[in-house]
Amino acid sequence: MKKTLTVLAVSVMMTMTAVPVWAQSSEAVGSEDALVETAAPKIIGETWIAPQGASLEEKVRVYLESNKQTLSLVGDDTKSIKITEQVTDAETGTQHVRLKQYIQGIPVFGADQTIHFDKQGNVSSYFGTTIPDATQQTAVALAPKISAEKAISIANKDTENIVGKLGSQQKEQTAELNIYPYKGQNLLVYVTEVNVLEPSPQRVHYFINADNGKIVNKYSLLDHATGTGVGVLGDTKSFTTTANGSSYTLQDTTRGNGIITYTSGNSQILPGTLLQDSDNVWTDPAAVDAHAYAGVVYDYYKNTFGRNSLDGNGLAIKSSVHYGNRYNNAFWNGVQIAYGDGDGSLFRAFSGDLDVIGHELTHAVTEHSAGLIYQGESGALNESISDIFGNTIQGTNWLIGDDIYTPSTPGDALRSMENPTLYNQPDHYSNLYRGSSDNGGVHTNSGINNKAFYLLAQGGTHHGVTVTGIGRTDAAKIFYKTLTLYLTPSSNFAAIRAAAIQAATDLYGAASTQVNSVKAAYGAVGVGSAPSPDTQAPSVPTGLASTGITQTSVSLSWNPSTDNTAVTGYDVYNGSQLAASVAGTNATVSGLSAGTAYTFTVKARDAAGNVSIASVGLTVTTTNSSDPDTQAPSVPTNLASTGKTQTSVSLSWNASTDNTAVTGYDVYNGSQLAASVTGTNATVSGLSAGTAYTFTVKAKDAAGNASAASSGLTVTTDTASSVQPWAAYVTYQVNDLVTYNGKTYKAIQGHTSLPGWEPAGVPALWSLVN
């Protein structure tokens, strides 16, 4: 049975008051409540075996059909889900597919999904949101009653009513039709953005009802942050510029499509004037820091994750310093970043802090990957991820904004990842802010995820849960994959926990310390349960045997131990001395003396450091140089059939041991040599249908010694008469055989056949045998 976790949906997604455009209005605008009612995100975390030979598209389709009930999809709903992006992770060998739901060709806002494939091509996990019964809920044709131009006008008018006459738009305004889940209905809305600098910076997403022009929802994407800077504090740094005749400009053409730094000259004009200098010795501290630190951020993402700029495709990084007059803010407006100089009392120049620049530019990374909606829990995660990478790039402490905030107050900061409560942020989900200001607490509730990251990286005990720290480097790798591969726009705290666990599993393995620490870190902040401390030792290794002996070395093997979580390795002892530590169930101990007896034992260990009792000792005597090898390997045991067809039989057996080393096995069909292999399995083909065959196996070593034959195993191949013709409306199991148009096919996916699913035309369900 699939393990399915249904997560609470983002419940607070209302209009806000804390960001600039809402400073004068605390009420929802329009006659309809401003709520985003995305369905509950779902997580499926159990491996699903994909059809062999199927394309990625076919695997996705079969997976969605197989999980229709879990995903609340009915009828033809799976056809409404389209692949939008495919990514192969070169580091882990995994594949990741992003999808989106459409109704009548119109995208559904917030209905995004990700499906993840392991190295074997099987589905390892699913994350995302779908609109249940979408086809039936939207049975009539969708057609807007107002134009896109009208929707844009409504949005502009609303912003203008709040802040005054608008200046020019920073991006070309468009209005895209979306399906918007609202009060049990799927509303047809226009999604548009107001992005202006005058009379004050605004970047607001609007959702306009395409039927009546009412504002269904709006929220600001204009975030603010602070930090400290080296150049602003008087140090000297080097950076790349461009020679232009007899002068130089703040343009770095060596990174992506460029890093370009301007000055707004204390106006609200963006980007402003490209900065120039006659001797390439720059005396504007705010510009020096903005330009140099943008390069540091670019290099971090490029060198750490192989990401080419903020969008992964070389996006030019544009910055403007001296924005506004004593402006206490910095912001990313979807096109570029702007830095105020601060008022000198509450803030220094905002470009002076590397964690501020890292924070703001990471918003662009999020915008071009997970696209986390900037409201409620998803908005808090958006803010937290910017804090996480801004702080990681700077890497000096766990404070945000400590070097530019209240410069006359040492040690002050805007936020602390180590102790969010110092700055009125919750550090546990039980204290989640559930009000409507600040876009539903995006700058407040970010403290919960910040604390989880701090615990993951640094370790510690919080709310009675002890977390083993894994360091900033591993923690950041986990969160980068979480952001770029697993999260969807509507992801909430429960979703990021599950996504981080999956990302850690991809990188380090399911039984790793990193995975356990992710679980513990989120358990410590009240998101999911923390794993119980592991105090149980693995079972004692058994079957210790010698698989090879020379004058100076002994090769050993043993049966694997079991553990309540997972065995992570084995320690091999020569007497009381540790001789080797290995991850698998064999080892070679070298550096021994010829003709000498040694006694070996093995202990198993797990990730928590629990160690088993030592195995039964094995005494082995190394060979003398004059001793010829006349000892044959032991007889192979447990010969068994692992599969058969009309024309082949697959076999497996337990490994033999030898005084030196087993080099291979010979498989016999009666008295005839049928196969020679180096491992402990083989397939004998070219057989006749419905015929009994008796197989034996012999082991051999490098000296040519062969063991006695194993016990015989008699297997009868499948009969031709047992294979029935394919028919519709029949339930087939994996490995069932059918005939169709004179050929034999094998089922590779359990299913109930339907007309049109004939074996010759559906390689996702059937493979040709002969």
UniProtKB/TrEMBL annotation:
SUPFAM superfamilies for this protein: Carbohydrate binding domain, Fibronectin type III, Metalloproteases ('zincins'), catalytic domain
Q: Which UniProt keywords apply?
A: Calcium, Carbohydrate metabolism, Hydrolase, Metal-binding, Metalloprotease, Polysaccharide degradation, Protease, Secreted, Signal, Zinc
CDD domains for the chain: ChiA1_BD, FN3, M4_TLP
What Pfam families is this protein classified in? CBM_5_12 (PF02839), fn3 (PF00041), FTP (PF07504), PepSY (PF03413), Peptidase_M4 (PF01447), Peptidase_M4_C (PF02868)
One Gene Ontology term of the biological-process aspect is: proteolysis
So which residues are the signal peptide here?
A: 1-23
Region: Disordered, residue numbers: 622-643
Q: What range(s) does the Fibronectin type-III domain occupy?
A: 540-625, 635-720
Cofactor(s) for this protein?
A: Zn(2+)
Where does the record place the catalytic residues? Answer: E360, H443
User: What are the GO cellular component annotations?
Assistant: extracellular region
Q: Does the keyword GTP-binding apply?
A: no
Any idea which GO molecular function terms this record carries? carbohydrate binding; hydrolase activity, hydrolyzing O-glycosyl compounds; metal ion binding; metalloendopeptidase activity
Query: Highest taxon of the source?
Result: Bacteria
Location of the protein in the cell: Secreted
Q: Which family does it belong to?
A: Belongs to the peptidase M4 family.
Q: Which protein are we looking at?
A: Bacillolysin
Its lineage opens with: Bacteria, Bacillati, Bacillota, Bacilli, Bacillales
